[in-house]
Every structure is written in C-alpha cells, then in structure tokens.
Amino acid sequence: MDSSPTKYVYCNDLPSVAYATRILALSPVLIIDCEGRNIGGLDGALSLMCIGTEKAEYIFVFDVLALKPFKFRLMPLFCVLANSAVKKVMWDCRNDFLEILSEYNVMLTSILDLQLAEIQARTAVNKEKDFQRIQRFSWGSRAVPLRTIKQNQELFLGVHRLQGMDACIRKANLPTTGKDPQVVAMHKAVGSAIWLDRPLPPNLLAYAAHDIEMIAMLYEHFKTNSWITSANELLLVAQSMRYAYSLFYQGRVADNDVFGPCAVLPLDVLSESRGPHFQCHGCHRMQSLSCYSVRKQGKKPQARSNICRTCQIKALLKETKYPIIWVAV
Ligand SMILES: [Zn+2]
Fold first, then answer.
1. 247 C-alpha to ligand 1 centroid (Å)
2. Same structural domain for residues 16 and 149?
3. Cα separation, 134 vs 264, whole angstroms
4. How many domains would you assign to the chain?
5. Would you call 188 exposed, middle or buried from its count of C-beta atoms within 10 A (0-12, 13-18, 19+)?
6. Does 187 lie in the same domain as 72?
7. Ligand 1 centroid to 4 CA: how many Å?
8. Bridge partners, residue 2, by sequence
9. What ipTM was estimated for this complex?
C-alpha cells in the first residue's frame, strides 16, 4: 500500500501557472478533477482545479480563487483544456465540466470518463448478466426492493447504477490509500464550504492532489484489464462527451431537487439516439422516445411520460411521489 504523501505543485500565481502549462501542454493525456463548494449545486463554486499528467508524474493544483484576478491571462492553459487532441481522463465529469464552463467559459473536449468505462466493462469484460444490472439497484443506500424493480421492468430497461470512485478502487484492490478519512469526516461535519477557506490547510490540498493519483491509477488499471482498449476508446470518448453535456440543460439544482444528483446513469449516453427528441419535464434534457415510458396502440406510440425514465427512477430511489402526466407524441 503506497501511503507516501502526494507530491504536487500549488499554482496560485502567474509564474507557477506558466510552469504548469508548459509541462501539461506536452502531455497527450491529462487527468482532471475539481474541488469546491457544492459543485453543480445552486451555490456551487470552484475552489481547486487539479490537473495531472497521464501517470500523475506531475500534479498541479490550481487555486481558482487566488487566480481570479488573472483569469484572462490563463488563456494558454485554456487552450490545452479545449484541445481535442489532448485526452482528459476524469471520474464523473458532469459537474466539473459545468463548473469549468461556468468559471472559465472553457468547454473541455475529448473527455474519457472512467465511470462510464467501468459500466461498459461490467458486460463487455466481466460478462455480467442483465439480472446483475438490476440487482445493483437493490443494494446500498437508496436501494429499491428487487420486487419493485421486477414489477417495473420496462422502467429499468437499459438503466445502469453508477459506482463511486472509492468503491471502484476497493474492488480493484489498487495499492493506494483511498480518500483521506479525516477530510471525508470534515466534509460530512461542516460541509463543502471548507473548500473556500484560505489559506487551505495542507491536508485539503493533499486530498485534492491525491484524487488525481487515484484516477491515474484507475486509468492504468482499466487499460491493463482491457476495460479501455484502442478498439473501444473512441466510443468511450463519444459516450463521455454525451455524459458531460447530460446536465447542460438542467444546470444547477437545489440539494433537495428530486431530479438532482443520484447514482443513476442517464439514458442516451451509452448509445446515440436517433429520431425525434423530447424534453423531459424533470431534468430538462432532450432525449429520444426510448428514454420515456411510452403508451402504444398496436405498435404505434401514442403518448409518453412527461419525465424520462431516469427521472422516474430517481423519484423512486428518493421515495418521492411525482405525478406522471402523459403527453401525446
Ligand atoms: Zn429526465
């Protein structure tokens, strides 16, 4: 188990940013992860943008607050982030993608999201059967009884449960300490606003940098185990970009929003949808008809549910009643 302290460069002025940009611009693969207050939430604010080289040989921790006065001089770094020839490896990119867009008006390109690679590997490599996909909804927090799932098979069709990074590291038996339990406990006790404190305590900076190390380790592990190969990488990038944009129309949500964060993979991410798209009244995302509950007459669809199946499942997991209204199609 590697418990040596994570080495990183703290970038809070222009010379350190220039140094970081020179190194990062030479790396064809970047590992990216952000920290902040309630990221993706109504009062979301970025604190740190952490970027590492492919194997985390270098880790740069950009202090978003300290760099605010120099925002317009960070253009060379933004060019690296927007360069589609540079792969950005992330774990659940959705909120970081939106926060970086909101703070810097920069759209990350060529994202490879390891959370999606893990889902793909369940069937492609580990040969999981469909009942195992369903079973995942009946475990852990916000579980649904298997009986309920079986009674709503059409609702759960093709829907996947997400797995967190820590769980993935544990299952992979990677020789690394997971997230610092002290910081995790602090998070729980006082909330994520601690990320906006300055100066940031060294253990928070180390925690942020260690996430980059863990994502880099997972990336290596996924490649070694053929979860990511030259054959599926392009598809994974296309899926990851759909994943990144999946919260685009919903934007920031209140903590108690029933359609807010929940460990369910949105539909129309793993596969590209064809035909007309309809807006969900829950997540506001435009999705194909297959993402909704559909009433048919014969084979012809007559009406769809006002909220997509993912949103219906979120309501179910959160034990919240939400009226389904049928909309003619
Ligand atoms: Zn929805």
1. 10
2. no
3. 12
4. 2
5. exposed
6. yes
7. 43
8. 176
9. 1.00
